[in-house]
Structures are given as structure tokens and as C-alpha cells.
Design brief:
Layout: H1 3-15, E1 31-32, H2 33-43, H3 48-60, E2 71-73, H4 84-87, E3 94-95, H5 104-114, H6 116-141, E4 148-149, H7 164-167, H8 194-209, H9 214-220, E5 225-226, H10 228-247, H11 253-265, E6 270-271, E7 276-277, E8 280-281, E9 286-287, H12 293-296, H13 306-317, H14 345-357, H15 361-378, E10 383-384, E11 391-392, H16 398-408, H17 412-415
Helix pairs in contact: 1-16, 2-3, 2-5, 2-16, 3-5, 3-6, 5-6, 5-10, 6-10, 10-11, 14-15, 15-16
Bound molecules: alpha-D-glucopyranose (GLC).
The site of alpha-D-glucopyranose (GLC) has 7 residues, from helix 2.
């Protein structure tokens, strides 16, 4: 074990609150949905049982509707806004009212693969819960074909330019008074603007005003956009969930049906003018016209094509480290601002999983090596400037530590086995 391996383990242990892991102390003091799934994958490299505990804790806060919320507020923390009172979902423990990218089934499958015997009983318990969550995505969020999100935070790529067109339609001028906390933890220049935040909070206030009735929010809420990122993540996760179900001896035809429907909806996300998959404002039926890392998650779902290959190489070759979250040639690009250009090790890991699955081991290795360089140079930061490697956001980040242990450090064949 190297020093960096030891540091990565220490970060996961240090952020462990007993059954769930904080993304990082200070900035994100609760349990986040997809962060938790990545933390579980990291734990699986040295404490398999703790990995399953993480997923159990996440799924324990599933709503009756099947939704798994994006934040679980286990213990009050005044250092974070918007906290449980602002969301007002009435859940216990308190949670937010939106979901996050459903990477859990994909990562649970990888974790199971790392120790099949120890994992069998654990995954058998999780399986029906994951099925219920995927059913929720299908029934509640795929009514327009691709996955629709009701808040940019649901995408996990919170502030990326993909959402600008939908955000422009949200009137943030009548938001109630509030105090941000994020800008007290990290450099405000890297964080969303006040105008963006007014709109984010307006969307939360709307959700609370309709008691988080998701059908109503989809029908009438201030924001509804099709997200290529979650669409591809869910499509991949449907396949992984079906594989888990088959291995457990279940009938998986329902899951296969969801996957078939979602794949059939992909052409609706292809923007010919852009020459790539694109986010779409479902209120106006207009494309965002922005190429972001969500489009490249197509590789994860076996949905790439030669035009996307060309775009990928153009965007990737325009920077030095990792795949940027937004097109460096677009006017919206900012290499240090939240999801508007920086590279995220955790998204790189998902993309590499996709490259490997589609037989592009050369691309997977290039991405691994660039991500390794970032972490070796600067440590386990939340994200990095893809032009000069400046570390950004929170330090000692759980998911960066996790993907170091599972993928970035070396041996992608071990960590990603079974991925194809
Ligand atoms: C930010 C990120 C989101 C992540 C959360 C906790 O909100 O945009 O993807 O889950 O931080 O790390």
C-alpha cells in the first residue's frame, strides 16, 4: 500500500459518520446520494461489509414512492444551506425532495463482483429497493421519454451550462430571504452566482408549496429539462440491475422493458445542429445547444457513435487533464467554476467504465492516467482545472478518495472487472 492509498482510506474513514459517509467536512455535512454509492465502491477495496452498510443506509431513506433522495440530513448542521426546514419534506430522517444520478445499481454490481460470496445476501436485500427506485424513475421522470429533472441539483452536475436555458425561465426575484453557507467554505468565484442561487431556492420553495407532489412538479413546476447524463446513467444502471436480478434468479422482464423504452427515447436527445446529445428544455422543447460531459456518458450506456467520438476527441484534446464538464470552445466555459468547465475525477471514472465497456481501453487508460496525475500532484480535491490542474472545491473528498482506490491508482482490470 502506498502513502496515497493510506491517505485515501483515511479520508473515507475520517468522513465516515457511522454507516454513512460525508462528501467532505464543512461544505457538505450530510449524506449525498451518488457520493454515497461512490464511497461504497471505495470502501469495497478494503472493507467489503462497510461498503454494503453504506448502500443500506442510503436505501433506508427511500420514500414510499420509490424515490431515493439526494440528501439525507441525519444530524442537524447549521453550516449548510438549504437545510431540512427549507426542503420541508416531512420525512424521517429529514431528506431533500429531489433525487440524484442512479449510479447505485452499477456500483453495487461492481462491489458484488469484488467479493461474490460475501455480497450475495447483502445485494439480495438491496435488490427490491433498487427495483422500486428504478421504477420511480421510469414512471415519474421518464414520462417525456428521456429522464426529466425538476431541479439542476438533481443532475449531480449542478451548475453546468446545460441548465442555463431552463434556469432563464425561473423567476428568482420573489425568493424569501436566506443566507448561503457554501461561499463561506470555498472560494466564492468558483461557486454559483447569487442570481443562480435565488432560482435554485425558488424551485425548492415551489416543491415544498405542493408537498413534493412529483407529478405536479413535472406538470407545472418552474423547471423541467431532459438530462442526457442521468438518461445514460439510468440506462446503464437498468442493465446492471437486470444482470443482478438474473443472477439472483428473478424475472427481470420489467427492468428490460424500462431499458428498452429509454433506449428508444435517445434520438430525442440528439441535437443535429450541435452534432451531439444535448439537454432539452421540456417546457419550450428547445435544446440547450451546449456540449457537456453528460453527453459523453453515452459511452456508459453503449449509445456512442462516430459523430460523438469526433466531439469527444476535440473537447478532450483542448485540455490537458481529464474530460472537461463543458466544451472548452463554448462561451460558457470557465475552467474553475462549478461544473462549467472543470474536470471531476468521479465523472472520469464513469466515462472510463463506458470506454472500457465499449472496447476503448486506450481511452480508458489515457483518462485514468490523467486523473492519476491530478491526484498525485494535488491530493483528493473535489474537482480540478483541466487546463493547469489547479485543485478546486473541497479537500479530502470522499468520492475522489474512492475512485483513487478503485480505479485511478492502477489496475483498472481489477476494479472494473465485470464492467463490460
Ligand atoms: C455538489 C455536486 C453534487 C454532489 C454534492 C456533494 O452539489 O454538484 O454532484 O453530489 O456536491 O458532493
Amino acid at each position: 500500500m502506498t502513502d496515497l492509498d493510506a491517505q485515501a482510506r483515511a479520508i473515507l474513514r475520517g468522513n465516515d459518520k457511522g454507516g454513512y459517509t460525508l462528501p467532505t467536512h464543512g461544505l457538505y455535512p450530510y449524506q449525498w446520494n451518488w457520493d454515497s454509492a461512490f464511497a461504497a465502491w471505495g470502501f469495497a477495496t478494503f472493507d467489503n461489509s462497510r461498503a454494503w452498510d453504506e448502500l443500506d443506509t442510503l436505501m433506508a431513506s427511500q420514500w414510499d414512492t420509490g424515490m431515493v433522495p439526494h440528501i439525507i440530513f441525519h444530524q442537524p448542521d447549521p453550516g449548510y444551506f438549504p437545510g431540512p426546514d427549507v426542503w420541508g419534506t416531512g420525512q424521517s430522517p429529514a431528506t431533500s425532495g429531489i433525487s440524484q444520478p442512479p449510479v447505485a445499481a452499477t456500483l453495487a454490481r461492481l462491489i458484488w463482483d469484488m467479493d461474490p460470496q460475501a455480497g450475495r445476501d447483502r445485494i439480495a436485500v438491496l435488490y427490491p429497493k433498487l427495483v422500486a427506485w428504478h421504477r420511480w424513475w421510469h414512471e415519474v421522470r421518464c414520462t417525456h421519454g428521456p429522464v426529466a429533472i425538476i431541479h439542476p441539483w438533481e443532475s449531480g452536475r449542478d451548475n453546468c451550462p446545460d441548465w442555463d436555458i431552463g434556469m432563464a425561465g425561473v423567476d428568482g426575484t420573489r425568493v424569501g430571504p436566506y443566507t448561503r453557507r457554501d461561499t463561506g467554505h470555498v472560494n466564492p468565484d468558483m461557486r454559483p452566482t447569487k442570481e443562480d442561487y435565488d432560482r435554485y431556492i425558488t424551485m425548492v420553495e415551489y416543491g415544498r408549496s405542493v408537498d413534493w407532489d412529483q407529478d405536479r412538479i413535472v406538470a407545472d413546476g418552474p423547471f423541467l429539462m431532459a438530462d442526457p447524463g442521468i438518461t445514460f446513467i439510468l440506462l446503464r444502471a437498468h442493465d446492471d440491475l437486470a444482470a443482478i436480478g438474473r443472477a439472483l434468479g428473478h424475472d427481470v422482464s420489467e427492468i428490460e422493458g424500462w431499458a428498452g423504452a429509454l433506449r428508444a427515447a435517445l434520438p430525442a436527445l440528439w441535437n443535429d445542429k450541435l452534432g451531439a446529445y444535448d439537454a432539452k428544455d421540456l417546457r419550450t422543447d428547445r435544446f440547450a445547444g451546449i456540449l457537456g460531459s453528460g453527453a459523453f456518458l453515452a459511452y456508459l450506456a453503449d449509445a456512442e457513435n462516430p459523430a460523438l467520438d469526433t466531439q469527444l476527441m476535440r473537447v478532450w484534446n483542448a485540455v490537458t487533464y481529464g474530460i472537461p464538464s463543458a466544451d472548452p470552445e463554448s462561451v460558457s466555459f470557465n475552467p474553475r467554476k462549478y461544473w462549467r468547465g472543470p474536470t471531476w475525477p468521479v465523472v472520469n471514472a464513469l466515462l472510463a467504465l463506458g470506454f472500457k465497456g465499449s472496447g476503448r481501453t486506450d481511452l480508458a487508460e489515457r483518462l485514468r492516467s490523467e486523473t492519476e496525475t491530478l491526484i498525485r500532484q494535488h491530493g483528493f480535491y473535489e474537482y480540478f482545472d483541466p487546463l493547469d490542474a489547479t485543485p478546486c472545491g473541497g479537500a479530502d473528498f470522499s468520492w475522489t478518495a474512492a475512485i483513487w482506490l478503485t480505479w485511478a491508482r492502477h489496475h483498472p482490470d481489477t476494479a472494473l472487472k465485470g464492467a463490460a
